[in-house]
Amino acid sequence: MAHSSDSYNLLSAEAFANPYPIYGRMRSETPVYWYERFEAWVLTRYDDVKTMLDHLEMLVVSPVSFPEDVPTEQQAKQQKIAEFLGRWVIYQNPPRQTVLRQLLSQGFKAITIRDLRPRIQAIADELLDELTANGEEMDVIWDFSFPFAVTVIAEILGVPSSDRYLFKAWALKLRDANIGYIDDPELIDEIDQIIDAAKSYLSVLVAERRQNLGGDLTSGLVRVQEDGRMLEDEELLSNLLLLLFGGQETTMHMIGNGLLALLKHPDQCQMLKENPGLIEIAVEEFLRYESPGPLAMRITGTDLTLGGQVMCAGQKVFGMVGAANRDPAHFPEPDRLDITRQPNRHLAFGHGVHFCLGAALARLEGQIVFPTLLRRLPQLRLGTEDLDWCRSIAIRGTTTLPVVFKLKGY
């Protein structure tokens, strides 16, 4: 067992820019690695990560933790944050997770994903109409991907997309809250205020739907609550916030990462332009090649052995999805972007009981966005090679993605 976290520095600027060489060394040298800085086992082989995701004794917990020696008032805020975010279905275990997931899935039945295609296409076109009317360059992340993602999820939930910059502020702070230990009193205060604001906003939305049910997802969840009385009020509000938050973050980076991959691989970009029917396969390859959620965390519920290593109950385990999706044992030439790759059993949406509820929506968004961007911006190119990647092992994406485009006829 390796003990020196200096052997594989996953928190260096080089690792944030390109973690795959380090993942490769870990996978070949110490595939089950005790990382002292994280106080966690780190898994980099596909089979080990998949086993972790499937293993019912690998428990999910909220990663949010706080210092203990703080004033009583601060402790109350910490407890409120931990309890509210801890009700997210992604942090629940069976049997409650099973019930809550079933209830949320019933709510999703209020909408039919494939029926959303015309409206999602219209949202993409409307954004590009505005962007192309105002110039020949944009930041894909904040000018297109973010407003696209938040508008889609807002419409699905039945909330005004005009509030998207409010949702953006919430999302950015929730991202900070969702990465582990928080010892900044100012950030704790901000997150406490965001939870109050979100609960107030979403409570009004739920009350309106109880008076006038519609065809949106919020109405579907209200129906589930009223029919079964098994979805508690706090669970409903908390998971509405999760849907709003999760629907932005992963989609935003899926689009950014996929487009960046295409622009860096002009042969694949040209192939997709000439063969738009490849888009479903291509989206799966984008998700494998640069997974926007490259880390899954679990806690061992009992002593167990994984990857030949004995793990004690209560230890943290980091399944590096980004590393698993580049494992040559499962993906020939894993560092090569191949939009014709089949089969492609990547783990970008997880696996097992915690498989992503929004996977079908994310796939549809990708299948619409990439052909639309390539069709409408045929001369799209990177505005710079100097890109800054999110400084988190749990999020894979660039902070900005400047591009330049020139329309036909110019």
Automatic annotation (TrEMBL):
Record keyword Metal-binding present: yes
The organism's place on the tree of life at top rank: Bacteria
GO MF: heme binding; iron ion binding; monooxygenase activity; oxidoreductase activity, acting on paired donors, with incorporation or reduction of molecular oxygen
The UniProt record lists the keyword Heme: yes
Cofactor(s) needed for function: heme
Pfam families: p450
Keywords for the protein's UniProt record, in alphabetical order: Heme, Iron, Metal-binding, Monooxygenase, Oxidoreductase
Record CDD domains: CYP164-like
Similarity comment: Belongs to the cytochrome P450 family.
Name of this chain's protein: Cytochrome P450
Organism expressing this protein natively: Candidatus Methylumidiphilus alinenensis
Origin organism lineage: Bacteria, Pseudomonadati, Pseudomonadota, Gammaproteobacteria, Methylococcales
